[in-house]
Amino acid sequence: MSFLFVVNLKLMSTYADRYFPDEPTGPKVVTETIPGPKGKEVIKSLSDVFDTRCVFFPTDYEKSYGNYIVDADNNVLLDTYCQVASIGLGYNNPNLIKVAKSDKMIRALTDRPALSNFPGLDYEEMQRDILKYAPKGQKYVWNGLSGADANELALKAVFFNYQSTKRGYDSPFTEEEERSCMENLPPGNPELAVLSFKRAFHGRLFATASLTRSKPLHKMDMPSFHWPTGEFPAYKYPLEENEDQNKKEDARCLAIVEDRFKNWHCPIAALIIEPIQSEGGDNHADAAFFQGLRDITLKYGAKLIIDEVQTGCGGTGIMWDHERYNITPPPDLVTFSKKMQSSGYFFHDPELIPNLPYRQFNTWSGDPKNILMCGAIMKEINEKGLLPSLRETGLYFYGKLEELQNEYPKLISNLRGKGKGCFMAFDISSPEKRAKFLAEMRINGVNIGDCGSLGVRLRPGLTFNKKHVDVFIPIMKTVLSSL
Amino acid sequence: MGVSEDYFPDEPKRPDMKTKCPGPATIAKLEELSKVFDTKAAFFVTDFYNSLGNYICDADGNKMLDAYCQISSIALGYNNPELLKATRTREMAVALTNRPALACFPSTDYYEILKDGLLSVAPEGLDRVCTAHTGSDANEMAFKAAFLYQATKKRAGKPFTEEDKTSVMNNQTPGASDMVILSFTEGFHGRLFGSLSATHSKPIHKLDIPAFQWPVAPFPTLKYPLEGFEKENRAEEERCLKDLESILTTFPHQIAAAIIEPVQSEGGDNHASPFFFQGVRSLTKKYGVLLIVDEVQCGGGGSGKMWLHQHYGISPDIMTFSKKMQNAGFFYHDPLLAGDRPYRQFNTWCGDPSKALIAKAIIHEIKDKHLLNEVNKTAAYLYAKMENVRQKHLKLMLNLRGKDRGFFVAFDLPTVELRDKFLYTCRQKGVNMGGCGDKGVRLRPTLVFQPKHVDILVKTIDEAFDQLD
Question: Which residues does UniProt assign to the signal peptide (chain A) (predicted)?
Answer without folding.
Answer: 1-16
